[in-house]
Structures are given as structure tokens and as C-alpha cells.
Amino acid sequence: MATAPRPRGALIVFEGGDRCGKTTQCSKMVERLKSQGVDAVMWRFPDRSTSIGAAINAYLSNQSQLDDAVIHMLFVANRLEKRDEMLRLLAGGTTLVLDRYSYSGVAYTAAKGVPHLSIDYCKSLEVVLPAADLVVHMSMSAEATAARGGYGEERYEKVEFQARVMEAFGQLRDERWAAIDAAGTIDAIHEQVAAVVEPVVRRTLQGAVLGRLWD
Ligand code: FDM
Question: Considering only CA atoms, which residue is closest to atom 17 of ligand 1?
């Protein structure tokens, strides 16, 4: 008797401004899924471990200057270089939990207000990437994140800029988005996150089709 193909994993993306607690919530969610027997891994974008990621890291930590279009392309390339591995993992049944993805790419660049780097243009560069099954948007005001420890160390951690990023995120919102108020305790936020993530993971394991970004 032929064995049924292994169901694919879910692509769960966490998005939000700097210092909103995404990384903490991503890792807690992965641990929870694993404890339920779900094969899950966490990735971060930018992936600073590659040579493209090292160039991005130098830019973010103000050790280099780059044209806005160039740094945008590097962020895109940093995702494209991981595309094959993402598709392989998802097809093999692993759920990927991403700390930022293309939505950050589009929102942060669009927030710069450079006319030739519009939201539509930025989106068009990444249509070959898989769509998220769920975007967990950790929402918090730019002022509230600015009050958090370590704020201001990296290039984009400025209140006025972060407020424009929030606005740009608002324009990317679609039916796959779930907004979570990021201002509560870690455990309370985790319960809200789990309540939106778990049904999507279950649905995906039951055969939901993997889409393409922005379709
Ligand atoms: N960022 C992140 C972008 O500008 N474009 C992107 O495509 C991505 C993935 O880089 F300020 C910005 C968002 C943030 C910084 O910070 C990365 P973290 O702390 O590694 O998430």
C-alpha cells in the first residue's frame, strides 16, 4: 500500500517594529509547537551569517553607507539565497517560524519615502518567494518601543522613522494578518500568539496549498 505524502509545514511570519518582542515570541512559539510534536524551526531575517548578511549587518550597525536601492536589494537577495532551503523544509513537513520576512523588507524601505522605491516596486522583487500562511503583526507604538532597553543602537531605531514603518505595515495588511497587542506581559502575549498560530499550523498540516507572495 502506498504511503500518503508527508503534509507540508506552515510558513509563519512575525513582523513589527524594532524592539517589539518578536524574537522572544518566535522562540517561545517554536518551543510550544515542538512540545506538541510539530516539527518546527525558527529563522531570522536578515540572516546575518551569510556574506550578504554580513554586508547588511555592517550597514545596520552604521559601519558602512549604502545607497537605499542597494541595501534594499541586499535584503531581498538575503531572502532569495534561502529560498531553495525554505521550499525544501516546507515541502518536507517542517514548519518555519520567521522573525521578519519580505513584509519588513517592503515596509522599512517604503518608510524612507524614496520615489523609485515604492511599495509596489519593492513587492515585485520578491514574488518568487513563498507566501506566509500567517503574519503575526506585533503592534506597538513607536514611542513605546523606544522606551525599551538597547533602543537606538541600530540604524533604523528612531521614533519618527519607526512611526513611518508602522504606517507602511498598515498598507501591507491582508486577510493573512493577525494583529497582536505587543504591550502586555511575555506570557500573556504568548497565549494570544498561540491562539492564532496553532489553528493555521493544523490547517496547513491538513493540506492547505503554499501560495506565492502578494498573490
Ligand atoms: N530590515 C529587515 C529591513 O530594513 N529590511 C528587511 O528586509 C529586513 C528583513 O533591519 F531595523 C530592518 C528591520 C530592522 C533591521 O533588525 C533588522 P533585527 O533586530 O535583526 O530584526
Answer: 46
**Contact residues for 23 (Cβ-Cβ < 8 A; gap 6+):** 44, 99
Spacing, Cα 72 to ligand 1 middle (Å) = 10
The span from the CA of 25 to the CA of 61, in Å, is 24
- Cβ neighbors of 133 (< 8 A, separation 6 or more) are 10, 11, 12, 176, 200, 203, 204, 208, 210
What is the average pLDDT across 107-127?
Answer: 97
Nearest atom within ligand 1 for CA of residue 155: 11
Nearest CA to ligand 1 atom 14: 18
**Lookup: cell for 94:** 517542517
Pocket test for ligand 1, best of 15, 18, 104, 165 (most atoms within 8 A of CB): 104
Higher-confidence residue of 31 and 141: namely 31
Taking the complete model, does pTM exceed 0.90, yes or no? yes
Question: Rounded distance, CA 113 to CA 101, Å?
Answer: 20
Q: ipTM surpassing 0.95, yes or no?
A: yes
In CATH, the number for domain 11-206 is 3.40.50.300
Rounded Cα–Cα distance for residues 169 and 119 (Å): 10
pLDDT at 1 over 80: no
- Nearest-angstrom CA–CA distance, 126 and 104: 12
Interval between CA 206 and ligand 1 midpoint (Å): 32
